[in-house]
Backbone:
């Protein structure tokens, strides 16, 4: 259920630190400032991710945020795999995701990690990543809730990894899903209360 340990502890630690710093880059804030949208933390939900950028009405900025947030997870995985092995790739993916959620550059107050999660999963094992993306799209199309789509996609990701032939990625998927659920605890409360904002709705 986990990859074979092939990389030295020192190298894994270096990978974790580098990937964490990459994941900590707040691309949502960067795009908001580049497009003159103001401080994203004072807009809508206050989140630094693509969904909140979309609430400003600026779709190009939201699309760029989505791509860059997903890319930092994917790039961390691909570089670690190229330089070391699969164990390093998984450590890099988790560290980049953790960096997005708890970035050192923003006092450890970051985003909810959905785009970074999807980018990480696509780079680790693209069939499971594609299944997670399709899950998000289906739930979003039916419910119009970004948060619910993320939660369902994350919770089902260990199942996709196992069923599609990568059982060694299951533990990582469980850890990522647990953090996504944790980061969405306020959204879960609003979903239960019927006060959650829908996709494209300004708050």
Residues:
């Amino acid at each position: 259920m986990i990859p074979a340990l092939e990389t030295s502890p020192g190298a894994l630690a270096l990978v974790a630190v580098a990937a964490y710093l990459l994941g900590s880059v707040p691309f949502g804030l960067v795009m908001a400032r580049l497009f003159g949208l103001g401080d994203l933390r004072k807009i809508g939900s206050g989140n630094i991710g693509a969904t909140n950028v979309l609430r400003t009405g600026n779709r190009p900025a939201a699309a760029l945020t989505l791509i860059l947030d997903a890319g930092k997870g994917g790039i961390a995985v691909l570089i670690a795999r190229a330089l070391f092995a699969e164990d390093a790739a998984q450590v890099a993916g988790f560290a980049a995701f953790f960096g997005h959620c708890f970035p050192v550059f923003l006092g450890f107050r970051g985003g909810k990690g959905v785009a970074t999660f999807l980018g990480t999963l696509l780079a680790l094992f693209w069939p499971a990543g594609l299944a997670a993306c399709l899950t998000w799209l289906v739930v979003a199309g039916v419910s119009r809730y970004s948060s619910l789509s993320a939660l369902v996609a994350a919770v089902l990701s260990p199942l996709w990894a196992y069923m599609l032939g990568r059982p060694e990625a299951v533990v990582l998927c469980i850890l990522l899903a647990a953090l996504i659920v944790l980061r969405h605890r306020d959204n879960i409360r609003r979903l239960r209360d019927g006060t959650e904002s829908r996709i494209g709705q300004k708050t």
